[in-house]
Structures are given as structure tokens and as C-alpha cells.
Design brief:
- Residues 1-10 have a biased composition (Pro residues).
- This is BHLH domain-containing protein.
- Keywords: DNA-binding, Nucleus, Transcription, Transcription regulation.
- It is found in: Nucleus.
- The chain is mainly α.
- The chain has a domain at 38-120.
- Helix content is 64%, strand content 0%.
- The longest helix is centred in the middle third of the chain and has 24 residues, at 42-65.
- It starts with 11 loop residues before the first helix and ends with a helix.
Length: 146
């Protein structure tokens, strides 16, 4: 019998070096995906990446439930009809979907929203949330007499 030769033995230090290199490559890829350009240690970067992913998940959930068209007058329309001049750099001419696209594609806007723990909501969603909160308060008052 001619058995195939055994695979070459790779020293532990070589395996460890390859693992470190792989981890370093993945860390660099993760850093490139984040909207900020600041340097940070590995633990901080992973913590910030986790928070950013949670923010994105919340934002996606909100955007998926957002109505495509608005039944409300936009804030920019209110401001444009006011007695002062406001320069929105043409954003006031965009429809809701276009404005959301600009916002979502802006790393600066995403970083600012995430750092402040904010998400984009449609006016209709906020009205619905307020109505639900009012109903809950009324129900609690009815049940507990507070």
C-alpha cells in the first residue's frame, strides 16, 4: 500500500498568526461599514458596532411600517409658507420616499441619529403612537380610578 503522505504540520505559532490576521481583516471590514471615521480600540468599536446594528434594526422596522405617501402637510411646506426664508437646498421639492433615501444614504445623518438614539418616524406613525398611549392612559384610569 502506498499511503498518501501526512499533511504538513503547521506550528502553533503559525496557526495563531493566521487567526490573528483573519480577525484583523474582519475588524477592518467592520470598521469600513460603520458610518464614523474615528479610531477606537477593539472593545469600543465592537460595542459601538452593536449599538449601531440595533439602531439600524429599529430604523428598518420603522421604515417598513411607514406609509409611502403622507396625509399630512410636511414641515418644510409649513416653513416655506412662513414669513422667513429657509434654505433646504432643494430638499423641500422631494417626496417622502426621495427624502428618506437621501437621509438613509447620508452617513452623517445616520451617525447623528444613532449617536442621539433617534430614529426617523412618519407623522402618521407618531399620531398612531400618541393615540395608543392616550387609549392606554384612559383604560388605566377607568380600571384603577387614578
Amino acid at each position: 500500500f502506498n499511503a498518501p503522505p501526512p499533511p504538513p504540520i503547521i506550528p502553533h505559532s503559525e496557526l495563531a498568526r493566521k487567526r490573528r490576521q483573519k480577525r484583523s481583516d474582519k475588524t477592518r471590514c467592520l470598521q469600513k461599514l460603520m458610518p464614523w471615521d474615528k479610531k477606537m480600540d477593539m472593545a469600543t468599536m465592537l460595542q459601538e458596532a452593536y449599538k449601531y446594528i440595533r439602531f439600524l434594526q429599529a430604523q428598518v422596522s420603522i421604515l417598513q411600517s411607514m406609509p409611502i405617501t403622507s396625509s399630512f402637510v410636511s414641515t418644510t411646506q409649513h416653513l416655506n409658507n412662513a414669513s422667513f426664508e429657509v434654505d433646504f437646498a432643494g430638499l423641500e421639492r422631494l417626496n417622502r420616499q426621495q427624502l428618506l433615501q437621501v437621509l438613509i444614504n447620508s452617513p452623517m445623518a445616520q451617525t447623528m441619529l444613532c449617536s442621539q438614539g433617534l430614529c426617523v418616524f412618519a407623522t402618521e406613525q407618531l399620531v398612531s403612537l400618541n393615540k395608543a398611549k392616550e387609549r392606554k392612559t384612559m383604560l388605566q384610569q377607568f380600571l384603577f380610578g387614578n
